[in-house]
Design goal:
The chain has helices at residues 2-19, 23-42, 79-85, 97-111, 114-123, 130-143, 151-162, 175-178, 182-185, 216-232, 248-259; strands at 48-53, 67-70, 73-77, 166-174, 192-200, 203-209, 238-245, 269-272, 287-288. It has 298 residues and is α/β, with parallel strands linked by helices.
Protein backbone atom coordinates (compact mmCIF):
# COMPACT_ATOMS: atom_id res chain seq x y z
CA UNK A 1 0.00 0.00 0.00
CA UNK A 2 2.87 2.31 0.88
CA UNK A 3 4.41 1.73 -2.57
CA UNK A 4 1.09 2.48 -4.23
CA UNK A 5 0.79 5.71 -2.28
CA UNK A 6 4.29 6.79 -3.29
CA UNK A 7 3.51 5.92 -6.92
CA UNK A 8 0.27 7.92 -6.74
CA UNK A 9 2.11 10.98 -5.38
CA UNK A 10 4.77 10.66 -8.07
CA UNK A 11 2.14 10.48 -10.81
CA UNK A 12 0.37 13.49 -9.35
CA UNK A 13 3.60 15.49 -9.37
CA UNK A 14 4.31 14.44 -12.95
CA UNK A 15 0.80 15.41 -14.04
CA UNK A 16 1.10 18.79 -12.28
CA UNK A 17 4.49 19.42 -13.89
CA UNK A 18 3.03 18.74 -17.33
CA UNK A 19 0.06 20.97 -16.64
CA UNK A 20 2.41 23.79 -15.62
CA UNK A 21 4.73 23.34 -18.60
CA UNK A 22 5.19 26.74 -20.29
CA UNK A 23 3.29 27.36 -23.49
CA UNK A 24 6.53 27.82 -25.41
CA UNK A 25 7.69 24.28 -24.52
CA UNK A 26 4.41 22.78 -25.68
CA UNK A 27 4.45 24.80 -28.89
CA UNK A 28 8.04 23.82 -29.68
CA UNK A 29 7.24 20.14 -29.12
CA UNK A 30 4.16 20.24 -31.31
CA UNK A 31 5.93 21.97 -34.20
CA UNK A 32 8.90 19.61 -34.15
CA UNK A 33 6.67 16.56 -33.78
CA UNK A 34 4.70 17.63 -36.86
CA UNK A 35 7.93 18.12 -38.76
CA UNK A 36 9.11 14.63 -37.78
CA UNK A 37 5.75 13.11 -38.73
CA UNK A 38 5.89 14.68 -42.20
CA UNK A 39 9.44 13.45 -42.80
CA UNK A 40 8.48 9.97 -41.66
CA UNK A 41 5.29 9.95 -43.75
CA UNK A 42 6.84 11.28 -46.96
CA UNK A 43 10.41 10.07 -46.59
CA UNK A 44 11.45 13.55 -47.73
CA UNK A 45 14.50 14.60 -45.71
CA UNK A 46 15.19 17.61 -47.94
CA UNK A 47 11.86 19.39 -47.43
CA UNK A 48 11.78 22.99 -46.18
CA UNK A 49 9.73 23.80 -43.08
CA UNK A 50 8.58 27.35 -42.29
CA UNK A 51 6.94 29.32 -39.47
CA UNK A 52 5.52 32.86 -39.74
CA UNK A 53 5.49 35.50 -37.01
CA UNK A 54 3.71 38.77 -36.44
CA UNK A 55 6.19 41.21 -34.89
CA UNK A 56 4.76 44.09 -32.82
CA UNK A 57 3.15 42.67 -29.67
CA UNK A 58 3.95 39.06 -30.60
CA UNK A 59 7.71 38.96 -31.04
CA UNK A 60 8.39 42.29 -29.33
CA UNK A 61 6.58 44.07 -26.53
CA UNK A 62 5.11 47.29 -27.85
CA UNK A 63 5.38 48.62 -31.39
CA UNK A 64 8.68 49.29 -33.13
CA UNK A 65 7.10 52.06 -35.24
CA UNK A 66 4.87 53.76 -32.68
CA UNK A 67 6.82 53.06 -29.48
CA UNK A 68 5.60 51.84 -26.11
CA UNK A 69 3.76 53.72 -23.37
CA UNK A 70 2.62 52.27 -20.06
CA UNK A 71 0.41 54.22 -17.63
CA UNK A 72 1.07 57.37 -19.61
CA UNK A 73 4.85 56.98 -19.34
CA UNK A 74 7.05 56.64 -22.43
CA UNK A 75 8.98 53.37 -22.19
CA UNK A 76 10.66 53.76 -25.56
CA UNK A 77 10.16 55.95 -28.61
CA UNK A 78 9.16 54.33 -31.89
CA UNK A 79 11.27 54.33 -35.02
CA UNK A 80 8.91 56.81 -36.69
CA UNK A 81 9.93 59.38 -34.09
CA UNK A 82 13.60 58.39 -34.21
CA UNK A 83 13.67 58.67 -38.02
CA UNK A 84 12.08 62.14 -37.99
CA UNK A 85 14.46 63.34 -35.28
CA UNK A 86 17.38 62.12 -37.42
CA UNK A 87 16.22 64.25 -40.32
CA UNK A 88 15.03 61.39 -42.55
CA UNK A 89 11.65 62.93 -43.40
CA UNK A 90 11.27 65.67 -45.99
CA UNK A 91 7.84 66.70 -44.70
CA UNK A 92 8.39 66.65 -40.91
CA UNK A 93 11.30 68.66 -39.48
CA UNK A 94 13.62 67.40 -36.76
CA UNK A 95 12.32 69.94 -34.25
CA UNK A 96 8.65 69.44 -33.46
CA UNK A 97 8.07 67.33 -36.53
CA UNK A 98 7.12 64.18 -34.69
CA UNK A 99 4.19 65.87 -32.91
CA UNK A 100 2.81 67.02 -36.28
CA UNK A 101 3.34 63.55 -37.76
CA UNK A 102 1.63 61.86 -34.82
CA UNK A 103 -1.38 64.13 -35.13
CA UNK A 104 -1.64 63.43 -38.88
CA UNK A 105 -1.08 59.70 -38.44
CA UNK A 106 -3.59 59.16 -35.64
CA UNK A 107 -6.24 61.25 -37.38
CA UNK A 108 -5.73 59.27 -40.56
CA UNK A 109 -5.95 56.00 -38.64
CA UNK A 110 -9.17 57.04 -36.88
CA UNK A 111 -10.96 58.61 -39.83
CA UNK A 112 -9.78 56.47 -42.74
CA UNK A 113 -8.28 53.31 -41.24
CA UNK A 114 -5.16 51.17 -41.09
CA UNK A 115 -5.00 50.59 -44.85
CA UNK A 116 -3.87 54.19 -45.37
CA UNK A 117 -2.33 54.99 -41.97
CA UNK A 118 0.16 52.12 -41.79
CA UNK A 119 1.71 52.73 -45.24
CA UNK A 120 1.94 56.44 -44.42
CA UNK A 121 4.83 55.74 -42.04
CA UNK A 122 7.30 54.67 -44.76
CA UNK A 123 5.69 57.14 -47.18
CA UNK A 124 6.53 60.10 -44.94
CA UNK A 125 10.19 59.08 -45.31
CA UNK A 126 10.11 59.64 -49.07
CA UNK A 127 13.43 60.92 -50.34
CA UNK A 128 15.44 59.26 -47.57
CA UNK A 129 18.14 56.78 -48.52
CA UNK A 130 16.91 53.25 -47.87
CA UNK A 131 20.33 52.32 -46.50
CA UNK A 132 20.18 55.16 -43.97
CA UNK A 133 16.76 54.06 -42.70
CA UNK A 134 17.88 50.44 -42.37
CA UNK A 135 21.09 51.40 -40.56
CA UNK A 136 19.16 53.64 -38.16
CA UNK A 137 16.85 50.72 -37.41
CA UNK A 138 19.77 48.33 -36.84
CA UNK A 139 21.41 50.79 -34.46
CA UNK A 140 18.18 51.39 -32.52
CA UNK A 141 17.50 47.68 -32.13
CA UNK A 142 21.07 47.07 -31.01
CA UNK A 143 20.91 49.83 -28.41
CA UNK A 144 17.28 49.82 -27.26
CA UNK A 145 14.59 47.77 -28.95
CA UNK A 146 16.19 44.34 -28.58
CA UNK A 147 15.71 44.71 -24.82
CA UNK A 148 11.96 44.39 -25.45
CA UNK A 149 11.92 41.19 -27.48
CA UNK A 150 9.58 38.60 -25.97
CA UNK A 151 11.79 36.00 -24.29
CA UNK A 152 9.37 33.14 -24.98
CA UNK A 153 9.10 34.06 -28.67
CA UNK A 154 12.88 34.27 -28.97
CA UNK A 155 13.16 30.83 -27.39
CA UNK A 156 10.64 29.30 -29.79
CA UNK A 157 12.34 30.86 -32.82
CA UNK A 158 15.74 29.53 -31.76
CA UNK A 159 14.56 26.07 -30.75
CA UNK A 160 12.56 25.37 -33.89
CA UNK A 161 15.46 26.71 -35.99
CA UNK A 162 17.68 24.11 -34.34
CA UNK A 163 15.00 21.56 -35.17
CA UNK A 164 14.98 22.48 -38.87
CA UNK A 165 12.15 25.04 -39.08
CA UNK A 166 12.91 28.49 -40.54
CA UNK A 167 11.10 31.56 -39.22
CA UNK A 168 9.82 34.51 -41.25
CA UNK A 169 8.46 37.74 -39.78
CA UNK A 170 5.49 39.47 -41.39
CA UNK A 171 4.79 42.86 -39.84
CA UNK A 172 2.46 45.79 -40.42
CA UNK A 173 5.38 48.08 -39.58
CA UNK A 174 7.65 49.37 -42.36
CA UNK A 175 9.92 46.62 -43.65
CA UNK A 176 13.08 48.71 -43.20
CA UNK A 177 12.15 49.27 -39.56
CA UNK A 178 11.55 45.62 -38.72
CA UNK A 179 14.59 44.37 -40.62
CA UNK A 180 16.74 46.05 -37.99
CA UNK A 181 16.03 43.11 -35.67
CA UNK A 182 17.79 40.64 -37.97
CA UNK A 183 21.00 40.36 -35.93
CA UNK A 184 19.17 40.14 -32.59
CA UNK A 185 16.97 37.26 -33.71
CA UNK A 186 19.55 35.65 -36.06
CA UNK A 187 16.92 35.72 -38.82
CA UNK A 188 18.15 36.65 -42.32
CA UNK A 189 17.09 40.10 -43.46
CA UNK A 190 15.28 38.61 -46.46
CA UNK A 191 13.12 36.58 -44.06
CA UNK A 192 11.80 39.77 -42.44
CA UNK A 193 8.87 41.37 -44.25
CA UNK A 194 6.81 44.50 -43.65
CA UNK A 195 5.10 47.33 -45.47
CA UNK A 196 7.21 48.40 -48.43
CA UNK A 197 7.43 51.44 -50.65
CA UNK A 198 9.26 51.42 -53.96
CA UNK A 199 12.96 52.33 -53.82
CA UNK A 200 14.33 54.28 -56.80
CA UNK A 201 18.00 55.22 -57.11
CA UNK A 202 18.46 54.08 -53.53
CA UNK A 203 15.79 56.40 -52.10
CA UNK A 204 12.32 55.75 -50.75
CA UNK A 205 9.30 56.88 -52.74
CA UNK A 206 5.60 57.08 -51.83
CA UNK A 207 4.70 54.19 -54.17
CA UNK A 208 3.35 51.26 -52.18
CA UNK A 209 4.54 47.73 -52.94
CA UNK A 210 1.67 45.27 -52.57
CA UNK A 211 0.50 43.34 -50.69
CA UNK A 212 0.27 45.66 -47.70
CA UNK A 213 1.21 43.34 -44.85
CA UNK A 214 -1.85 43.86 -42.67
CA UNK A 215 -5.02 41.75 -42.37
CA UNK A 216 -5.54 39.74 -45.59
CA UNK A 217 -2.32 41.23 -46.92
CA UNK A 218 -0.41 39.13 -44.38
CA UNK A 219 -2.07 35.97 -45.68
CA UNK A 220 -1.22 37.01 -49.24
CA UNK A 221 2.39 37.59 -48.21
CA UNK A 222 2.63 34.12 -46.66
CA UNK A 223 1.31 32.58 -49.87
CA UNK A 224 3.70 34.72 -51.94
CA UNK A 225 6.71 33.64 -49.87
CA UNK A 226 5.80 29.95 -50.10
CA UNK A 227 5.34 30.21 -53.88
CA UNK A 228 8.61 32.11 -54.29
CA UNK A 229 10.49 29.58 -52.15
CA UNK A 230 9.15 26.73 -54.28
CA UNK A 231 10.17 28.55 -57.47
CA UNK A 232 13.67 29.16 -56.16
CA UNK A 233 14.09 25.58 -54.91
CA UNK A 234 11.84 23.48 -57.14
CA UNK A 235 13.39 20.20 -56.02
CA UNK A 236 12.21 20.75 -52.44
CA UNK A 237 8.76 20.55 -50.90
CA UNK A 238 7.73 23.48 -48.68
CA UNK A 239 5.56 23.04 -45.60
CA UNK A 240 4.26 25.77 -43.26
CA UNK A 241 4.04 24.38 -39.75
CA UNK A 242 3.13 27.37 -37.57
CA UNK A 243 1.92 30.95 -37.38
CA UNK A 244 2.06 33.37 -34.44
CA UNK A 245 0.01 36.51 -33.79
CA UNK A 246 -1.83 38.59 -31.21
CA UNK A 247 -4.62 40.40 -33.09
CA UNK A 248 -7.64 38.73 -34.69
CA UNK A 249 -8.15 41.71 -36.96
CA UNK A 250 -4.52 41.97 -38.03
CA UNK A 251 -3.29 38.38 -37.85
CA UNK A 252 -6.45 36.27 -38.00
CA UNK A 253 -6.47 35.68 -41.78
CA UNK A 254 -2.91 34.40 -42.03
CA UNK A 255 -3.19 32.33 -38.86
CA UNK A 256 -6.38 30.72 -40.12
CA UNK A 257 -4.76 29.95 -43.47
CA UNK A 258 -1.88 28.20 -41.71
CA UNK A 259 -3.95 26.37 -39.09
CA UNK A 260 -6.43 24.91 -41.60
CA UNK A 261 -3.90 23.46 -44.06
CA UNK A 262 -3.92 19.79 -44.99
CA UNK A 263 -0.43 18.50 -44.28
CA UNK A 264 0.80 14.99 -45.19
CA UNK A 265 0.96 14.21 -41.46
CA UNK A 266 0.36 16.07 -38.23
CA UNK A 267 -1.36 19.43 -37.93
CA UNK A 268 -0.07 22.97 -38.36
CA UNK A 269 -0.56 25.27 -35.37
CA UNK A 270 -1.83 28.84 -35.18
CA UNK A 271 -0.63 30.40 -31.92
CA UNK A 272 -2.57 33.37 -30.56
CA UNK A 273 -1.16 35.49 -27.72
CA UNK A 274 -4.36 36.96 -26.35
CA UNK A 275 -7.01 35.63 -23.99
CA UNK A 276 -9.95 37.54 -25.49
CA UNK A 277 -12.81 35.54 -26.92
CA UNK A 278 -12.28 34.59 -30.55
CA UNK A 279 -14.69 35.83 -33.23
CA UNK A 280 -16.90 33.07 -34.66
CA UNK A 281 -14.75 32.62 -37.78
CA UNK A 282 -11.68 31.80 -35.65
CA UNK A 283 -13.27 29.97 -32.72
CA UNK A 284 -11.44 26.78 -31.84
CA UNK A 285 -8.77 27.21 -34.53
CA UNK A 286 -5.87 28.61 -32.54
CA UNK A 287 -3.73 27.62 -29.58
CA UNK A 288 -4.36 30.31 -26.96
CA UNK A 289 -0.97 31.06 -25.44
CA UNK A 290 0.71 33.41 -23.01
CA UNK A 291 4.32 34.53 -22.97
CA UNK A 292 6.26 32.64 -20.28
CA UNK A 293 8.53 35.66 -19.79
CA UNK A 294 7.96 39.28 -20.70
CA UNK A 295 11.03 40.66 -22.44
CA UNK A 296 14.56 39.47 -23.01
CA UNK A 297 16.22 42.49 -21.43
CA UNK A 298 14.28 42.48 -18.17
Amino acid sequence: MKCLAVLSVALSILTLARAEEPDDSRIISRILQTRAAIVQSTGDTNALFLAFWDFDGTTMKGDCSEGLREDGKMIYAGLAQIAIEHGLSEIYPREGGFEKFWNDYTNMDTRVGHWLAYPFIPQMLRGAKAGDVLQLSRDYFAGTLSNYLRASSVRIIREIERGGVQSHIISASPELFVQGVSASLAIPTNHIHGIQVRVRDGRLTEEIVYPVTWNIGKRQKVQEIVAQTQREQPAKSVFVLAGFGDSYHTDGPFLKYIATQNLPAGQAIGVFYDNTNAPAEYRGLFYQASHSATVSGK
